[in-house]
# Entry
Amino acid sequence: MSKAGEPVIGVPYYAGQNPYQAGIVPPNAIYGDPMGAPIHQTFYRDTPAPFNCLYCGNTGLTDIRSKPGVAAVVACMTPFMLGFCFLCPSMDCLWNKQHHCPQCGNKVADFDKSDPCLVMDPPQWKQPSFALPA
# Structure
């Protein structure tokens, strides 16, 4: 019994091109405060994200704290060849982000910018966070 040419069960199979797999944001995405609307999934990125806190039940936008990451270190090392390194807050767009609940202060998500090639890709420096409604 040959199984050649049969799609694997449990693995999504798309006959055509799926735009959401290419990184296109769905048209019904929520960017601001959800104001109590049920959220199916949140995509945490560089900007405050709409979320429902698992710890305290708060609904709103996350607080963001920045931490240096691989992309920031690579950006620092680039001018190091000239004799100086600047890992300053003006490069915040290349730092990793931690999302925290503004009410209880618990960390709800991390967004790591681990791609060192990001330094040479300015359009991807600032990626907006969004959520999908339920």
User: Anything to note?
Assistant: The mean pLDDT is 75. DSSP finds one helix and seven strands in the chain. The beta strands are 39-43, 50-52, 59-61, 63-67, 96-100, 107-111, 130-133.
